[in-house]
# Entry
Amino acid sequence: MKRAALALCLLSPLLLAQSVPRLVPDVSQRRIDIVYSFTGAELLLFGAILYPGGRVPTRDADIAIVIKGPAEPIVLREKQKVAGMWINADSARFRSVPSFYAVAASRPLATLVDDRTAAIYEFGVDNIQLSPASGKVPAEQRRLERGLVDLKRRQGLYVEEKTRVRITEGVLYRARIQLPARVPVGVYTAETFLLVDGRVVAGATREIAIEKTGFERYVAAAAADRGFLYGLFAVVVSLVLGWAGAVLFRRLR
# Structure
């Protein structure tokens, strides 16, 4: 009896794993190179839902896809106009802010999951976890967080895609997400979630590398590794170009 109970306990995780659907996601580009003519890119995210025994359930499943750029610390400064001058009135520090965020789903997020699930999985721009480090009172912190999110939205870096994830025959899915021209470089994660009756039942992740190449990569590396020399060179180039422009202007007169 004890042996049978032990065997059942050992088999339970295996049986449970075999009864849960699985996602097999992929992306159209695993690497995106940024050159001088880069005007943005369109990512195609696609894949399949593998159901146990190949049996597709009668009730519809949903897909949500979240793309995040590398996290970065940010200091947000709020400016106010005082006596005709713009001055820094307040500031807030954030330890870990996604440099890029985009979400797409098979249905509107508000009808897809409840607020708790949306907050846990960061479904929606308003649910991004920003890791504040300023120690401000909650009301003031939320106001500054909304300001940061609004700034990212206006820069085109935080997006809720209006085009939905398309699911074919209950098994195949695909979605298109636009990356702006000023998208930051780094390793991005594309997280795909399978939802049934408002619950996340499966998930899978793929990575996308966005890098600068050619002259842009050299300039970025020089600015990061030799900041003083890069700044000095930029000042010298500006002075030379200004002097050359003044000489040319005098001759044309």
Summary: Helices lie at 2-19, 109-112, 115-121, 138-154, 214-225, 227-252. The chain has two domains: 19-212, 213-247. The two ends are 104 Å apart (CA to CA).
